[in-house]
Task: inverse folding
């Protein structure tokens, strides 16, 4: 059974079709790439999967449950997480605060227990901080643990965003341009970390990224969208050599679909 199953999904805005009849299967544990030129509909598709917009047609199933009509908070609780093209962090909070917010949703003790400092609550708090620090270490952020996010360069904020997204412990994580704003060295390191942590934690990834060099290293299979529809799917090598994909990308720069 596929973890994520899309059948003939369509999304329109004011009569303009952003997504047209997309059918796709993402298997458990897979790292799937999603690419396409400007206006291809990739982010609109992710927004439909996560409930930010409502699909106009078709079905979206996660773990064999139809989720197309669910609001974002319910979809998130089912185990789908995401990042955004432009980071959505608590800018006044520290690097540590932001990662802890992802972990706190898993706490199972009550407010009174936390306020009284009961043993179980104290133990969970300690374990939570340890997990947060482990994620920060993986993304080379430990030295910035107490820094306010608003004071950090965009590329570093993206690494904080990735750490927080993984802290939520999703079953499926949708990454929308996760390495934008990073240097080449930072991007390479982030790819290694993302792949390693996804494998270690059993997280399935669906990744939108315009950096083809990175996508070819990260993804196991790639789906290509153009003008709202899927035009190709295959291994990185198959996609690289597909003439339809080459034609779709001719003269195209950064992708903000």
Result:
């Amino acid at each position: 059974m596929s973890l994520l199953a899309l059948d003939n999904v369509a999304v329109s805005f004011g009569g303009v079709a952003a997504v047209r009849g997309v059918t796709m299967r993402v298997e458990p544990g897979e790292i799937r790439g999603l690419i396409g030129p400007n206006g291809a509909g990739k982010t609109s598709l992710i927004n439909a999967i996560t409930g930010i917009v409502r699909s106009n047609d078709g079905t979206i199933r996660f773990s064999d449950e139809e989720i197309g009509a669910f609001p974002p908070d319910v979809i998130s609780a089912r185990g789908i997480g995401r990042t955004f093209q432009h980071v959505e962090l608590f800018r006044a909070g520290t690097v540590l605060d932001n990662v802890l917010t992802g972990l706190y949703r898993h706490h199972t003790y009550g407010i009174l227990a936390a306020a009284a400092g009961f043993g179980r609550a104290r133990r969970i708090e300690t374990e939570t901080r340890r997990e947060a620090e482990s994620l920060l270490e993986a993304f080379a952020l430990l030295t910035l643990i107490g820094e306010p996010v608003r004071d950090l360069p965009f590329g570093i904020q993206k690494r904080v965003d990735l750490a927080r997204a993984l802290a939520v412990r999703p079953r499926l994580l949708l990454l929308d341009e996760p390495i934008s704003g990073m240097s080449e060295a930072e991007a390479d390191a982030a790819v290694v970390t993302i792949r390693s942590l996804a494998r270690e934690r059993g997280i399935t990834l669906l990744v939108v990224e315009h950096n083809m060099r990175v996508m070819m290293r990260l993804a196991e299979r790639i789906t290509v969208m153009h003008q709202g529809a899927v035009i190709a799917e295959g291994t990185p090598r198959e996609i690289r050599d597909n003439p339809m994909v080459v034609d779709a990308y001719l003269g195209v720069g950064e992708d903000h679909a």
In short: The longest helix spans residues 119-138. The chain has ten helices and ten strands. Residues 251-257 have pLDDT under 50 and may be disordered. The radius of gyration is 19 Å.
